[in-house]
């Protein structure tokens, strides 16, 4: 036997909307991570001279180090964006769906 609460949630069109939105958002962020990460890997593999180049004359800082640091910051930023949206929009919609399903049960 299935729980009526879960059945009410599954039947709610907002639930399908939530699953779609959350999945699309997560896929978009995952694609960004893959593009940024593998772009760096491909640069290292195929253009090592660019990665080894100094940021400016006399500097010990290389382009590779700067790009690696950029990745770290970028991935932290994407995590923040996901958590902010998940805790805001997605959790709010989730709470509405659950509350309405509880009323129907």
UniProtKB/TrEMBL annotation:
Pfam families: DUF485
TM region(s), chain numbering: 25-51, 63-83
InterPro entries registered for this protein in UniProt: DUF485 (IPR007436), Inner_membrane_assoc (IPR052959)
Keyword Transmembrane helix listed: yes
Keyword Transmembrane helix: yes
One GO location term (cellular component): plasma membrane
Keywords, alphabetical: Membrane, Transmembrane, Transmembrane helix
PANTHER family: INNER MEMBRANE PROTEIN YJCH
UniProt name for this protein: Uncharacterized membrane protein, DUF485 family
